[in-house]
């Protein structure tokens, strides 16, 4: 007690001296750590190897870890002056048959190329990613931050110097340096629009010398408690010439488009301009089917639904499944007062994760908290006011997600589906060389449920917003 109050007194009396002393200590710790890994003159680094990556938010079941991919090759080039990055990898889905992991199963090898060009908008916040990716990235971020402090901490009987500062996203970041000044672990938090503030941690181990620079041979990143990257590094090239341009496949994501719509029938509308959604007019309320992507997209869908069907509240939002690109707008619907209708396995998951704090990037629900209301679907649910009917069915034998709903409008003979058939840009006139098991499952479910489908509405609408029919689905599975 006495010790504590003396410490408080010391802070009160000499706070500015203590702050500057901390910063001086931090500077020397950073300089020692950079020297320990031979990174004092590092302008760029390229490292390569192989391992695994895991797609956050795309688990095949709300209770499973993020789905796993084999990274057969992985190469990342980082330029520090100016800041830029290019990651290239060849990956295959690790589970066979594929489960979860994106809009379509990855069949065979997939090449990925992620570019952050110097001077691009993403380059402005790239340091937050680099500090979690390579040890020197953390030291540079610590050196650039205005509030870096050093403390000591004993973890598992081992003594560490801990560098702590505020990252660009306003979350605290901490790096643990061992007694040789080698960075072993970095911890911070990041915002995820579905999960809220989530822990992000990286471990660096098995340091080896590569051309005068010490670099970890094993890097593991975890987000939200599950691994997202597990790399074994076999080659590192310090100070390689850097030429990173946006090129193909690296273009920044476009801002969400304004919502427009197409009338599908009396009181039934397809909302365009992003992931597709349906707005259906009931006697005294609106039902929206799918609340995907983000607060922004949900706002656009809500505004368009209210414009099309004025003076009625949105009472229900139907959610197809818990993948983050399909669930990213649900919190905005909850803020709007809508009850979420979802397959029963998704409800406990949403209840758990929506209770997480959203302090780093507060969304509408975080700004005006409300307890979410749910209605769950087992195998079937019918929403009707006598004029308009929406039938909801739980898909069976669907590898993409265990809690997937189909929405069928019997009067209009319209079926909305998510990730079961994402038609290509142009009408399919030939059966693809490899048939998607997801497409086969959709056709099998339509047959099992004896649905008379005249138009399929894929939540991932084709680029030309064309009318997708059963003929095209049958072509996709080699039966037409
Ligand atoms: Zn999905």
Fraction of residues in H or I helices: 10-25%
Q: What average pLDDT do the residues reach? A: 92
Helix/strand structural class: alpha+beta
Low-confidence stretches: 1-17
Strands, count = 23
CATH topology of the largest domain: outer membrane lipoprotein receptor (LolB), chain A
- Gyration radius, rounded: 26 Å
Strand order of the largest sheet: 4-3-2-1-11-10-9-8-7-6-5
How far the N terminus sits from the C terminus, by CA atoms, comes to 80 Å
Would you state the CATH class of the largest domain?
Answer: Mainly Beta
Supply the number of helical segments.
10
What features would you describe in this structure?
The chain folds into 2 domains: 17-238, outer membrane lipoprotein receptor (LolB), chain A (Clam); 261-476, Metallo-beta-lactamase, Chain A. It contains 10 helices and 23 strands. An 11-stranded antiparallel beta sheet has the order 4-3-2-1-11-10-9-8-7-6-5. Strands 12-13-14-15-16-17-18 form a 7-stranded mixed beta sheet. It has helices at 2-36, 126-130, 135-144, 295-308, 324-327, 330-335, 347-353, 364-367, 437-448, 470-476; strands spanning 44-54, 68-80, 83-93, 110-116, 149-155, 158-166, 172-177, 183-192, 196-210, 213-223, 226-238, 261-265, 268-271, 277-281, 286-289, 314-318, 339-343, 374-377, 380-384, 389-394, 405-409, 414-417, 455-458. The N and C termini lie far apart (80 Å). 22% of the residues lie in helices and 35% in strands. It has 480 residues and is α+β, with helices and mostly antiparallel strands. Mean pLDDT is 92; it is low at 1-17. Bound molecules: zinc ion. Zinc ion binds at residues 321, 323, 326, 400-401, 419.
């Amino acid at each position: 007690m006495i010790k504590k109050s003396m410490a408080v007194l010391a802070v009160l009396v000499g706070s500015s001296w203590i702050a500057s002393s901390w910063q001086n200590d931090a500077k020397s710790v950073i300089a020692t750590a950079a020297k320990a890994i031979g990174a004092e003159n590092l302008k760029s680094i390229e490292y390569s190897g192989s391992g695994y990556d895991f797609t956050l938010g795309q688990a095949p079941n709300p209770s499973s870890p993020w789905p796993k991919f084999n990274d057969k090759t992985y190469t990342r080039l980082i330029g520090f002056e100016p800041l830029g990055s290019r990651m290239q990898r060849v990956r295959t889905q690790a589970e066979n048959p594929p489960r979860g992991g994106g809009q379509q199963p990855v069949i065979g090898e997939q090449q990925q190329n992620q570019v952050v060009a110097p001077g691009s908008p993403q380059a402005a916040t790239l340091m937050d990613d680099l500090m979690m990716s390579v040890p020197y990235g953390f030291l540079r971020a610590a050196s650039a931050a205005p509030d870096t402090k050093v403390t000591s901490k004993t973890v598992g009987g081992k003594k560490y110097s801990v560098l702590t500062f505020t990252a660009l996203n306003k979350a605290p970041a901490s790096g643990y340096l061992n007694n040789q000044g080698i960075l072993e672990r970095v911890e911070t938090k990041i915002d995820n629009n579905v999960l809220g503030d989530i822990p992000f941690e990286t471990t660096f181990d098995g340091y080896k010398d590569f051309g005068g620079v010490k670099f970890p041979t094993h890097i593991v990143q975890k987000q939200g408690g599950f691994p997202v990257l597990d790399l074994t590094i076999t080659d590192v090239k310090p100070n390689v010439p850097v030429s990173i341009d946006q090129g193909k496949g690296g273009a920044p994501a476009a801002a969400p488009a304004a919502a427009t719509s197409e009338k599908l029938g009396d009181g039934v509308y397809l909302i365009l301009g992003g992931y597709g959604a349906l707005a259906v007019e009931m006697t005294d309320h609106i039902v929206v089917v799918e609340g995907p992507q983000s607060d922004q997209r949900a706002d656009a869908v809500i505004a368009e639904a209210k414009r099309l069907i004025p003076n009625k509240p949105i009472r229900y939002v139907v959610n197809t499944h818990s993948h983050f690109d399909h669930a990213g707008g649900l919190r905005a619907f909850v803020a709007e007062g809508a009850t979420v209708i979802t397959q029963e396995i998704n409800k406990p998951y949403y209840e758990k994760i929506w209770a997480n704090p959203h302090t780093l990037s507060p969304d509408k629900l975080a700004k005006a908290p409300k307890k979410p209301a749910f209605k769950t679907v087992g195998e079937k649910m019918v929403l009707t006011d006598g004029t308009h009917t929406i039938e909801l069915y739980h898909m069976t034998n669907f590898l993409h997600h265990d809690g997937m709903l189909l929405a069928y409008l019997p009067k209009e003979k319209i079926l909305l589906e998510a990730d079961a058939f994402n038609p290509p840009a142009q009408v399919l006139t030939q059966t693809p060389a490899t048939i998607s098991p997801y497409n086969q499952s959709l056709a099998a479910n339509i047959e099992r449920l004896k649905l008379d489908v005249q138009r399929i509405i894929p939540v991932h609408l084709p680029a030309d917003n064309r009318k997708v029919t059963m003929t095209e689905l049958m072509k996709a599975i080699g039966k037409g």
